[in-house]
Amino acid sequence: MNWQEVCEHPGLQNLPFKIELNGKGNILMSPVKVYHAACQGEIEYLLRVMRKDGRTLPECAIKTRQGTKVADVVWVSQERFERIKHEIECLVAPEICIEVLSSNNTREEMEEKQRLYFETGAEEVWICKENGEMSFYNPEGKLERSELVPGFPEKITI
Length: 158
Known about the structure:
Layout: H1 3-8, E1 17-21, E2 27-31, H2 34-50, E3 54-64, E4 67-77, H3 78-84, E5 96-100, H4 107-119, E6 124-128, E7 134-138, E8 141-143
Parallel strand pairs: 5-6
Antiparallel strand pairs: 1-2, 3-4, 4-5, 6-7, 7-8
């Protein structure tokens, strides 16, 4: 399947799962817990308050060489948003792609997503652990804090 087919398939509408595609077009589904959604909402809110020169998007589909990945939250500049706003899946990643970890995520999976987001144009990838601790990365590696949003907290509370 491709991402447009997933988006238009009537049997895949209103599922309580996050859906992604792997490199072979197979559907991957991950159930989302309430706490996970609360973390997404808090991150999106903080970004919206701190970076008014762009947009925050929840559950943003990004086309990668390994299929369609869906970042939990992204921040995208207005300029880049104008380029991607009508796409089925982003052909260029938003500047900041954020993943909220779930108990079933592996370190290898998150490292692969980071590589894929950077390959597709992300400038930073953030990881939110289950306890709310934030980690910030750019293509060169781990950052002390975000360079794009230096005031973003190192830990979010729910």
